[in-house]
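Entry 14. Ran structure prediction on the chain below.
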Amino acid sequence: MTDALSEIARDQERDGNFGIYILNVFKFLNNSTTENYLSLNDSAKNVDSVRGGYWNPGYKTKLENGLVKFLIKLENRNQKAWDFILKYTKDPSSGIILELAEQLKLSRTKYLEFNFPTWID
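Output, structure tokens:
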């Protein structure tokens, strides 16, 4: 058993890694290169590597395992996949927010039918 501060630190680490993952999803959608895919895959691994946490004890993501299927859903304009990714972009409090906003602006021109967060304008 670990202490609460260690568990909270894991939650924060996962959240930070997830922000980078989201950024890399949009980078890949906007420019589908091998380099961008490898960065995205690495960021998925980083999120998956963080186990447990205070708010979700025993929680473990499996982003890397479903990455290709998820990207195909996004490319095919699957509403549930887009809802999943866009719900994490509603709060502009991340340290990577400016770069994410630029990626979202690029994606918005390609995927116009989705409700992109208003803070990117």
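The radius of gyration is 15 Å. Will compare against last week's run tomorrow.
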